[in-house]
Amino acid sequence: MHKQYSQDQSFDRIAEKFEKNIYGTTKGRLRHELLEHYLLQYLPPAPQRVLDAGGGTGVMTKTLAQLGHQILLNDLSEDALNIARQKLADYPQVSYHCGPLQEISEQTQFDVILCHAVLEWLSQPLDAVEGLLTKLAPGGQLSLSFFNSDAHLFSNVIYGNFDYIDKDFVVPNRVRLNPNKAVCPAQVLAFLEAAGLTVIHKAGIRCFHDYVRDKSIQTTHYEQLKAKELEYGTSHPFVWLGRYFHVIAIKPGE
């Protein structure tokens, strides 16, 4: 990894564990299915030039490849991309870039940029968003989802983790699959507005799933939970309570 991005999280050597722990659970499945649902509501017709920035093992890339889009899948982890190459072997329109998303050529313009569950792993998340905007074509769509700092505080108060909160969410032995830095939705929305983008969609992702007292409900009543997420996830106040926040914004045209 390049020195200037040495604080950004890579999943080399734990990519398979990441795949299992995230997408093999109801929380990962629900996050993906909700993002997919919202994204497909706004995605322009194929083919579009798409950048899946920090796309990991290619779960969302596969969804878009099946629709016929031309996709560059980027990730810091070569291990994650190797898993993606196997998963996406039948989709020749997918290409790959291993390295910091900041190093993708600014000369390459994309109609759609996805950056899902990435910002919370970066040392300078808003700098990364600014870099992505230079790669977004005029009139293009930016889809961001990220670990919600407000919901992170809310949930830890509910769980009674007061010492963790008072230590500014820093623990001596951090689990590598736990995000480094939750991100504030209001800050991201203000940043996008200041950059001249028009926000066309906001949603909370997992507004209810993570808060149910009986965790078995996450499995036994998965479809009912998902239905409530879709019913209320874009409505105030629930949009602000999702453990992840999703926003789609359009860059001004020329």
From TrEMBL:
Its EC number is 2.1.1.-. It comes from the Bacteria. It is an enzyme of class 2 (transferase). It catalyses: 5-carboxymethoxyuridine(34) in tRNA + S-adenosyl-L-methionine = 5-methoxycarbonylmethoxyuridine(34) in tRNA + S-adenosyl-L-homocysteine. GO terms for molecular function: methyltransferase activity. CDD domains: AdoMet_MTases. The keyword Coiled coil does not apply. GO terms for biological process: methylation. Residues 51-143 form the Methyltransferase type domain. It holds the Pfam family Methyltransf_11. Belongs to the class I-like SAM-binding methyltransferase superfamily. CmoM family. Catalyzes the methylation of 5-carboxymethoxyuridine (cmo5U) to form 5-methoxycarbonylmethoxyuridine (mcmo5U) at position 34 in tRNAs. This is tRNA 5-carboxymethoxyuridine methyltransferase. It comes from Bowmanella yangjiangensis. The lineage of its organism: Bacteria, Pseudomonadati, Pseudomonadota, Gammaproteobacteria, Alteromonadales. The gene is cmoM.
